[in-house]
Write a structure and sequence with these properties.
The chain is mostly helical. The protein has one domain. The protein has helices at 7-17, 22-56, 66-75, 81-86, 101-115. The termini are far apart. GO terms for molecular function: DNA binding; transposase activity. Residues 21-48 form a coiled coil. One of its GO terms (biological process) is DNA transposition.
Length: 119
């Protein structure tokens, strides 16, 4: 049984694999597969790197640094483990709500001061 292939296909095959042994072709295929995997890995790491640079490029002016970073980190599609370790931030910070203790303290102090005006 004789199979026929297109002249262009035959030319492309000869230009790519011409003069190679079967082992060389197999090795070439393995290297191309490894290159594909490494490109994919590099793209993922590069994306994480750019996203973290953008995340930490923000200037945070108040004393509570964790919450603005936590909110920005929630908005990204990145894993939270690596950025949290990078800035020594507890992952629990991402999931708890920031309480406004100032208002509660003022209410308590006002109540105490009303009962004991000389303190």
């Amino acid at each position: 049984m004789m199979t026929h292939c297109d002249i262009k296909t035959d030319y492309n095959w000869k230009s790519k694999y011409g003069g190679m042994e079967a082992n060389d072709v197999k090795r070439l295929k393995e290297l191309e597969e490894e290159k594909r995997k490494l490109k994919k890995l590099f793209a993922a790491v590069s994306f994480e790197n750019h996203a973290m640079k953008a995340l930490f490029a923000k200037k945070v002016s108040d004393g509570r640094v964790e919450q603005p970073y936590a909110q920005s980190l929630k908005a990204t599609s990145l894993s939270v483990i690596k950025p949290c370790k990078l800035i020594s931030l507890s992952q629990a910070t991402l999931y708890r709500q920031l309480l406004d203790w100032g208002n509660k303290d003022h209410e308590t102090l006002d109540a105490i001061q009303a009962r004991h005006p000389f303190i």
